[in-house]
From TrEMBL:
Name by which UniProt lists this protein: VOC family protein
InterPro entries given in the database record: Extradiol_RC_dioxygenase, Glyas_Bleomycin-R_OHBP_Dase, Glyas_Fos-R_dOase_dom, VOC_core
Gene3D superfamilies xref list: 2,3-Dihydroxybiphenyl 1,2-Dioxygenase, domain 1
Residues covered by the VOC domain: 7-132, 152-270
Coiled coil: none
Database matches in SUPFAM superfamilies: Glyoxalase/Bleomycin resistance protein/Dihydroxybiphenyl dioxygenase
Transmembrane feature ranges: none
Biological source species: Yoonia rhodophyticola
Length: 309
């Protein structure tokens, strides 16, 4: 069993409209945009990162907003819902706040003894704000007060036809099975970061998801550095997984592989971080381009939609 993985690093999803996406995460949820860059493989598409003050691992929601992308269809083989941690006692205030913004899909739920505010993002992406004792320092943007501000991720919920093989993978990655409630089984990394929960919902006869705007593209798990990442990669290869070589993503190093249930997993390093090319006070303000796309700057600055900030 691996011990290097500490919980989630980031979650990356697809969107349709960059400006709408930016406004939702910064103005409605009160997160900080910590990086404005582009998709490595499609540089005419933004890659936007939202999180706490410095984009700490375990806090960062990222998006590829493909203009006018068709909406995805929910189903199995995907991350069905991404969960953020909020202070205990703040669920009612969040429900009221989201209602003022006419956020869709708004409801409440208690799962594993925790109050959850369920809601949809602009593209139908499913989220939960979960009351949880969490001492991480939040970013307080969009008029969100510190006593209710998002602390970062709690975890992610995967919807699968059959949980067996994915449960075995999570346990190999260092997660422990905690409990089952209905069709949901909870796994957690002991002594991990605060974004250390994965819930698997088993829905045997549901159709497979179809990816599009509002779909999670992949979830990334955090390791301390490149040495720990190489240890994880070797162990996964030895177990039979088809793992990519290490890829330099400027702000972290990444490897990717497909979990048995269909979800794309990434293992990302905590280093070097989002302040490698911007000081903390100005994170996310300027368009940052990978070196291989710097020659396209003039063209991209004309084509990419202004975010409105």
């Amino acid at each position: 069993m691996l011990r290097q993985i500490k919980g989630l690093h980031h979650v990356t999803s697809l969107a349709r409209d960059a400006r709408e996406n930016n406004a939702f995460f910064t103005n409605v949820l009160g997160l900080r945009r910590v990086k404005k860059t582009v998709n490595f493989d499609a540089p005419d598409v933004y890659h936007l990162y939202y999180g706490d003050e410095v984009g700490s691992p375990g806090t960062v929601m990222t998006y590829f907003p493909f203009p006018n992308a068709a909406r995805g269809h929910r189903g199995t083989g995907e991350v069905g819902r991404t969960s953020f941690s909020i202070p205990t006692g703040s669920a009612q205030a969040w429900q009221a706040r989201l209602a003022t913004f006419d956020v869709e899909g708004l409801s409440t739920q208690t799962l594993f003894g925790q109050k959850r505010v369920l809601f949809d993002g602009p593209d139908g992406d499913a989220f939960a704000l979960v009351e949880h004792d969490d001492d991480r320092t939040p970013w307080t943007g969009g008029g969100v007060s510190v006593d209710m501000a998002v602390r970062g991720f709690l975890g992610a919920d995967m919807r699968l036809n059959d949980a067996g093989a994915s449960a075995e993978l999570l346990q190999f990655m260092g997660y422990e099975k905690l409990d089952t409630q209905g069709d949901v089984t909870r796994f957690a990394i002991p002594d991990g970061n605060d974004a250390n929960i994965i819930d698997i919902q088993t829905v045997p006869h549901a159709p497979m998801a179809r990816q599009g705007a509002g779909s999670v593209h992949h979830i990334a798990f955090a390791v301390e550095n490149r040495a720990r990442q190489l240890e994880v990669r070797e162990a996964l290869l030895d177990t039979g997984y088809n793992v990519t070589p290490v890829i330099d993503r400027d702000y972290f190093y990444a490897i990717y592989f497909r979990a048995p249930g269909g979800v794309l997993f990434e293992v990302a390093t905590n280093e070097p971080g989002f302040d490698r090319d911007e000081d903390t006070a100005h994170l996310g303000r300027s368009l940052k381009l990978p070196s291989q796309h710097e020659h396209l700057r003039t063209k991209l600055e004309r084509k990419l939609m202004p975010l409105g900030d």
